From TrEMBL:
<feature type="domain" description="Amine oxidase">
    <location>
        <begin position="12"/>
        <end position="96"/>
    </location>
</feature>
<dbReference type="Pfam" id="PF01593">
    <property type="entry name" value="Amino_oxidase"/>
</dbReference>
<dbReference type="InterPro" id="IPR002937">
    <property type="entry name" value="Amino_oxidase"/>
</dbReference>
<comment type="similarity">
    <text>Belongs to the flavin monoamine oxidase family.</text>
</comment>
<dbReference type="InterPro" id="IPR036188">
    <property type="entry name" value="FAD/NAD-bd_sf"/>
</dbReference>
<dbReference type="InterPro" id="IPR050703">
    <property type="entry name" value="Flavin_MAO"/>
</dbReference>
<protein>
    <submittedName>
        <fullName>Flavin monoamine oxidase family protein</fullName>
    </submittedName>
</protein>
<feature type="domain" description="Amine oxidase">
    <location>
        <begin position="111"/>
        <end position="359"/>
    </location>
</feature>
Length: 367
């Protein structure tokens, strides 16, 4: 199989890149290791299945006034957004032995915005506009070999068979750390590039999110915003996760470090989280009709062993272009390669735009 541009990764960056290439009339093929598109974007229903009106187990927010690339894409796709609910008081939990305290809430500036249907709505709209035959799920890339015409990429498909595809240009739309750990390059990357990729923290990889789903957002009736901060845990930061369609929920970031989460276990964390919500928001919070839990550190298509030590938020590191022998043949376009908003949804859009622009310049020069 041959293609002009091979995109590896079907998250926001990969799909945005595919959209730009398709609009420009440049042939592409997209390989995604998961059995779904979206990558770290995951919006599900109460049963944990991907949904067009879901709860965001991955990223939840963006900031239109600060992130022009993301704002433009959302507007161009005709998606609607709404502000994160923040009306009402916040709750602060200092110690086990103390009653949680209630304080007047402060409106966030700039406001965090959420998409109608969940962040997964952008994945659905992008994918619907692309030719289905150009997208291949369940395809895990293992090797890339440089040749005179471009690169030959080896991958294992959904049936476990090894396949190869030749491409003039390759766009890697996945975390640099994951790429360095899982794909072998021939010729090998130079040591500085490999180290740079390995040292780049992966957005979402350290996090685990817990959701408690209810019949109605009862905390609002009590004058609470649904926002809470805790020094006790297991949830350290809690927010109202009620959808635009009115499905009520609270969600929290698990404040337990990765290694400790592995020891404690999923079930114990879920039970302790429910008990904590009851302490913060009253007995009704202790009776959710469903819960959702996603630990991104245990997702092998997001995190590597290096993420077990956590780390800071990704910062712009000039990762888009790859030096050495692979220069002008491969580009990085995951969120971490964003030139301004690395580690955010906007970073993925920025990185995709930049990489595709470089490829289009090469295609134009060659023609």
């Amino acid at each position: 199989m041959k293609t002009s541009v091979l995109i590896i990764g079907g998250g926001l960056a990969g799909l945005t890149a595919a959209r730009f290439l398709h609009q420009a009339g440049i042939g592409f093929h997209l390989l995604e290791a998961r059995d779904r598109l979206g990558g770290r974007i995951l919006s599900t229903d109460a049963a944990g299945e991907v949904s067009d009106d879901g709860f965001d187990l991955g990223p939840s927010w963006f900031w239109p006034g600060m992130q022009s690339a993301m704002n433009y894409l959302v507007g161009e796709l005709g998606l609607r957004y709404f502000p994160q609910h923040s009306d009402g008081d916040i709750v602060f939990q200092r110690m086990h032995s103390q009653t949680p305290e209630r304080f007047q809430g402060i409106r966030q500036v700039p406001e965090s915005m959420r998409l109608h249907g969940g962040i997964g709505a952008i994945v659905s709209v992008l994918a619907a506009a692309l030719p289905k035959d150009n997208i291949q799920l369940g395809s895990r890339v293992t090797h890339a070999t440089l040749n005179e015409a471009g690169a030959e990429v080896c991958f294992v498909n959904a049936e476990g068979m090894t396949q190869r595809i030749e491409a003039t240009y390759v766009l890697f739309a996945l975390p640099p750390r994951l790429l360095e750990a899982t794909v072998e390059f021939s010729p090998a990357l130079d040591a500085a590039t490999a180290r740079n990729w390995r040292d780049t923290p992966t957005w979402m990889a350290p996090h685990a999110k817990f959701f408690a789903l209810y019949d109605r957002p009862f905390w609002r009736e009590a004058g609470l915003s649904g926002t809470a901060q805790s020094m006790v845990g297991p949830l350290s930061e809690i927010h109202d996760a009620t959808t635009a369609s009115g499905k009520a929920a609270l969600f929290g970031f698990v404040g337990i470090l990765i290694r400790q989460r592995e020891k404690v276990g999923r079930d114990a964390i879920i039970e302790a989280s429910i008990q904590q919500l009851a302490q913060l928001f009253g007995p009704e919070a202790g009776r959710p009709h469903a819960t959702l839990y996603k630990d991104w550190a245990s997702d092998s298509l997001t995190a590597t062993a290096d993420d077990g030590e956590a780390g800071g938020h990704p910062i712009p590191r000039g990762l888009a272009s790859v030096p050495g022998k692979w220069n002008n043949r491969i580009w990085l376009a995951g969120s971490e390669a964003g030139r301004r908003d690395a580690g955010y949804l906007a970073g993925a859009v920025e990185a995709a735009e930049y990489a595709v622009m470089q490829i289009m310049n090469k295609v134009e020069a060659a023609s």
